[in-house]
Amino acid sequence: MKRGLWWFFVVFACVVGVSLSGMAFAEEIRVAIQSFAHEALKPFIEQFETQTGIKVVLESMPSSGTDALTKLTTYYRAGQSPYDVVSDADEASPAFARAGWLEPLNDVLPPDFFDDFPPSMLESEKVWNWLDDKVYRVRHSFEFGYFFYRKDWFDEMGLLPPATWEEMVDIGKKFTAQGKIGVEDALSKPALLYVYVAYLTIQAGGNPFAFDEGFKTAVKFIHDMIYEYQVFPKEALNKNYDQINEDYMNDRVAMMRQWPYFYSVTRNNTEWYREGKAEIALPPRGPVSNASWAGGWGWEIPKFAKNKEGAKKFIQFILSKEIAPKLARANSWFMNPRYSVMAELGDEGLAKYMKWYSDNNVPAPRPYHPRVAEAQNIVDDVVSAYLIGQMTLEEAVEQGKKMMAELGE
Amino acid sequence: MRISGISRKRLYYALALILPALVLRLFTSLYPVVYTIYLAFFKVNPIIGVHTYAGLANFQKMASDLVVRESVFFTVFFTFLSIAFQTSLGLLVALLLNKRFILRYFARTINLIPWAIPMIVVALGFRWMFDSEYGIITDVIARITGFRFAWLIHPWGARWAIVLANVWKNTPFVAILFLAGLQSIPLELYEAARVDGASSWHCFRYITIPFLAPVVMTTVLFFTVWYLATFDIVYGMTGGGPGFSTAIMSYKIYQETFSHMNFGYASALSILLFFLVGILGIVFLLLSRRVEILL
């Protein structure tokens, strides 16, 4: 028995030793960002490693804000972080900052850092990424929805892009008469329906979280586009972005709001794309404006990062005026309207449209709520229920207001 | 009974060896349960920096929460229908696989393929298959009936689509369990019954069902508990929509925990789910005893 006990402790010690040895690491940082951005980052990471001697290990992050929130909450709540630097979403970052789970970046950024930001972007940064004058996140992507349309079809029919909601409906009817889809967007839960509701609500002069008149106008407009004018497919209520992109690239859709990445998706589909198939126009104007709300992903350092100093050096490097523009040229995921970035990109590709939209005051602040993920879910739930007939508009507004009031701090 | 010195040493040695596993088990099971019950009586949200005693407020909130009411309904609907279909179909498949035919071993093997596919993959696959424009299921039905149904945007269509996808995935496993039960029934009973002039139906009713009853009851109980906590198929297929029609308890708990960070409310919902599982489990156990007696 003594021998057995002795062997037990030997095995136990070996297991503990192996486990602990895994915890020892050289100077390195773990950077988490969406996998489609890894290739573009690699040359800059090599440069960083050469300059600082800090090894960078790239990890993957989800592409959806709510998935990012889910993934990171589990770690942060337990006082841990597997990453030293994270590319995080609007849905997650403000919540984490308020929960005290992020490291302030004020001492990382040069004093004139934000001079490189145009007023619209700086205002949005202050609302979403600053708390009590401390900067917790800096966006590397700052994007808004673009209005894509089939210019080739419009040219055939002698049409111009719609300037107003009403024109969009009239033109949409012409295309649905041909068996095509006039207007489409993804209306599935979670989150995608909110994106379109917020987009139209801002154009109607409202705030989706207030369930105000602008909200009612926007939601009724979606309802009417589906059921009364029949220019918008009901099937979109369960479609995600992959599915509507498929619809568009299967030559079924005439007009569609979509994020900037769709510009690259269409151009990279070399078998299908021809000039005119996915052009960009200014958004049709609603009752108040033709705004398109802007949001994005940004760099942050978790409070529980193992190598904060290394992480800060990385943030300083990757956000610098020297590197950020080159990174934006390498991948549109790093595109934003910072002056240095726009100077680098000139009038190429999507940058041309970003400038055009900015010059026409299209970018609008993203609707803010301190508990934004929960607030967005409320909008998703009640609007979805209204659009499928589970609730009337008045019931949806009442239910939405009640649920929003319960969020109150 | 007195324990001798040697026996006492062996006892201590045994306890020392199982203690790490026991501590780990208690820590990973008992501690979360106790902490969840504790949290259910608090308002806890790190976003707004709240951790205050709330009494029964979380449970009162549940009673007026429309999404919770819809979730409870669909959770029970999904569980009962899935169990009913997969038990019936599973028994049918098991009876077929129990017959002697060429390639029956191959048939038994490929029967398990749906069950081997991860549920989230099944959910995403069926999301496309039920798509009103690209879905193969929708297309086949449209070619046969001339009617194109938009499953996933109609509340009842979405509910049934989720049930059907779930039944497709899990019936093979049920069939294999029933097949094992069928193969444990002595063949002499069937031979004796035939000698006495029993028909196939009589053999099935008076031999197969009574002998298979314990396996069926255990399988149904197991899957009932499993389905009441289902999450991935709803997450992948509909996200709880359209509207609230496919909201399910575990998805609501996930939302409240990881998206909303309402840990107290999520804990209260977890307790509700626990009671739901407990009540249905007890009801089922009582019913199963009656059924066994009747058989």
Automatic annotation (TrEMBL), chain A:
Domain of life: Bacteria
GO cellular component: periplasmic space
Chief subcellular location: periplasm
InterPro entries (alphabetical): Bact_solute-bd_prot1, SBP
One family name in Pfam for this protein: SBP_bac_1
Localization: Periplasm
Family stated for the protein in its record: Belongs to the bacterial solute-binding protein 1 family.
Protein name: Extracellular solute-binding protein
Provenance organism: Candidatus Caldatribacterium saccharofermentans
TrEMBL record, chain B:
Membrane association type: Multi-pass membrane protein
Main location: membrane
Gene3D superfamilies: MetI-like
All copies of domain ABC transmembrane type-1, residue ranges: 72-284
Listed GO biological process terms: transmembrane transport
Keyword check for Ion transport: no
Keywords recorded for this protein, A-Z: Cell membrane, Membrane, Transmembrane, Transmembrane helix, Transport
Annotated compartments: Cell membrane
Pfam families given in the database record: BPD_transp_1 (PF00528)
Cited InterPro entries: ABC_transporter_permease (IPR051393), MetI-like (IPR000515), MetI-like_sf (IPR035906)
A single GO cellular-component term on record: plasma membrane
Transmembrane segments: 12-34, 72-97, 109-130, 203-227, 233-251, 263-287
SUPFAM superfamilies named in the record: MetI-like
Family, as annotated: Belongs to the binding-protein-dependent transport system permease family.
Protein name from the UniProt record: Sugar ABC transporter permease
